Structure formats: C-alpha cells, structure tokens
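Hey team,

Filing this mostly as a record. A colleague (T.K.) asked me to run one chain through the structure pipeline before their review meeting, and I want the input and output archived in the tracker in case anyone asks later how it was produced. No errors, nothing strange. Just documentation.

Input sequence:
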Amino acid sequence: MGSYKIKEMSAGMTNSERKQFPVQEVYSMFDNETTMEWMEKYNPMLNRGLISSVFEALSKVLVNVLPEGHTVKIDGLGVFSLSLEFCNSKTEEPTDGQKQVREYRRVQAKSINLKVDRMLVDEINEMSTFERNGSEVVTMGQHTYTLQQRIERALAHLEKHRYITLTEYANLNQMSRTSASVELKQLVADPSSGIKANGSGTHKVWVKA
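Output structure:
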C-alpha cells in the first residue's frame, strides 16, 4: 500500500480557487542492482548478466536513434522521445590574422521523455491502493518537513544505503531538485550535519561524514 499527502497551489499560482492534488510519498529510489534483483524475482529465467546487457543495449538504442528523429516504443512500458533546448556556445574564428571569439546559439538534447503506456498505469491501479498520510494540506512552496527532519531522513536513508543521490534526497523530502541541490551544498559546508559530498558531476552523491 502506498501513501500520499494533499498539496495545494499557493496564492498567486492560480487565478481560481486553490487546486488540491495528491502527491505520493517517496521513501527511496531503486538503484541498478536493486532493480535487477526485483526483475529476477518476477522472472527466474533472467539473470544479472542478461538484464544488465538488455539495459545497456536499450541505452545504446536510445542514444543512436532518438537524435535521428525516431521514437522508441516498448509495449507495456511506453514511448521514448527526445526533448531539445537552446544553449550558448563559443567558437574561435580567424579575423585579420587574429583569432576572435564568437558566441552563437545551438540546439542540444535537454532530456528524454517517456510517455507511459496506459496499460501500465491501469495495472498499477488494479493492484494498488493508496492511503493518506496525515490530515494537513501542504501548500506548494512550503517544505513538508523541517530542516532537521530532512537531515534525519537523509541520515536514516544512509544507514540503509551507502549513499544518497540528489534525486533521492529531493524525493525523500518532497523538494524540487533545485532546492535539494542548494540545501545539500549548505549541509556539506556545515560539518555538524553529518553529510558530505563524494564524486563530481553526474556521479556526485552524498554519504555520511
């Protein structure tokens, strides 16, 4: 059974009556190993090596065919498509014997979209029920938990797992990734938080200090 909280739009976000909607409480994110472990449970014919190979092959397919203008449909899962964005770049051009830096705007991949197969959602609804956690209504822009509670929830996660990712921290504490990123920087700068950063870039995670 899943749990959820009720959230509502804050004043100014909508011209009409404040809209309320349910938001699922997320406690953790399955990493690659955990996902493969569960897949083995549901299909004993599979093994880690085979599952890992399928994941890698699917990743290669998306990398190679989405930029060419194709979408990828997997029955029972959904349709993958590419999302684009503008970005600013610089290039050096020779002008009168000297190199001159010129800025220009180019297009790059922003994200990969997944439009989920409706049959998958219907199956979830057939198999699952959701229970409301608490009676209060949380207004958008307000934190569900206090800073100390967020730290404690993160440390509890780290007791069970080796690390926590930015997405996991955001989901665990019902925050946006932007707010979570800013807060994690503050926690790392405070030795008393008990949390430190490890790695960099897309491989950056947070561990117990």
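Quick notes for T.K.: The radius of gyration is 22 Å. The chain has a mean pLDDT of 87.
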